[in-house]
Amino acid sequence: MFASPTLVSRKILKENISLLSQKCDRSYDRYVDINKLALFTTNCVVSLCSGRFLVKLTHAMGIRRKIIELHEKGVTLHNEGNYREAAKVLEQAKQMAEENLDTKDEMRLRVLGYLGEMYICNGEYMKAQALLEDILSVQRQETPNVLLAATLYALGKCYNNQYKYMDAIRLLKESLSIYQKYVSANNVRVTDTMDMLGTCFMGQGNLSDAERILRECLEIRKSAQPEDPIADGRLSLAHCLYKQGKQSESIELTKECVRISKSHFHPKHFRVASG
Q1: How would you write 208-248 as a 3-class SS string?
Q2: With a threshold of 0.85, does the pTM exceed it?
Q3: What span, in angstroms and rounded, lies between the C-alpha atoms of 272 and 260?
Q4: 245 φ, ψ to 5°?
Q5: 97: Cβ contacts below 8 Å, ≥ 6 apart
Q6: Pairwise CA distance, residues 188 & 45, whole Å
Q7: Count of CB atoms within 10 A of residue 190's CB?
Q8: What is the per-residue pLDDT across 53-70, written as a single tens digit (0 to 9) for each?
C-alpha cells in the first residue's frame, strides 16, 4: 500500500522547516527544492491520490536529490582548489538538470552558474561566456534578484579576464546595484563585486576610479572582517597605488596583507610567498 501524498507533503514541509531553522547558506539549495516539491505534492493531491502519482513524485525527488549531491560535491572540490574535477562533476549535474528540470528551474540555473565559474577558474573563458550568457537570458525574464546579480558578476569576471573591460564594467555595475538592494552593505558579495569592478577600472587604465572604489571596498571589509585574509582588499589597492607611483603606501598595504596572511596560512601558501 502506498503512503498518502498528503503525508508525503507534510513530511517534506517538516524537513523544509528544519533546514530553514539552521540559518545556513549551504541549506539554501535544499530549502528551495524541498519547498518546490512540497508545493508540487500539495497541488497534485486534489487531482491525483494514487500510487502512480507517488511513484512519479519519488522518482522526481530522487533525480533532484542526485543533482543537489553532485552540485555540493562540485562546490567541495572547488573549495579544495580542484577546479578541473569540480567542472567534471558539475557537467554531470548539468546533463541531469537539462534532461529533467525546467529551463527556469532554480536548481538548474545554480548548477549552470557554478559550472560557468569553474570554467573561468580553468581558463576556459569561451565556454564560461556561452554558458553564463544563456543563464542570463533566462534570468532576465524574471524580477531581478541575488541569483541574477551572481550571474552578472561571474560574466563580468569572465569578460574582464578576456580584456573586455567595457562589457565587464557594465555588468558589474548592474550586479552591484542589485546586491545593494538585497543584501547588507558589508556583505562579501558586495565587496567582491566592488573589488572586481576596481580591477576592471585598472585594466582599462582608469586608475582614479579604481583607487576610489578599492578604498571604499577596503574600508567596508575592514569594518566587517578586519583581518580575514580571504576577504582582504589591501593587495588590490596596493597594486592600484603602485601603478600610480604611490610606492610608499603601496608597500605598507602589501606588508599588512602579508602579515595577516602569515597568521592564517602555511609559509609556502601563495598569499604569503607572493609577498
Answers
A1: HHHHHHHHHHHHHHHHHCCCCCCCCCHHHHHHHHHHCCCHH
A2: no
A3: 9
A4: 85, 10
A5: 67, 105, 107, 108, 111, 112
A6: 42
A7: 22
A8: 555 666 778 888 999 999
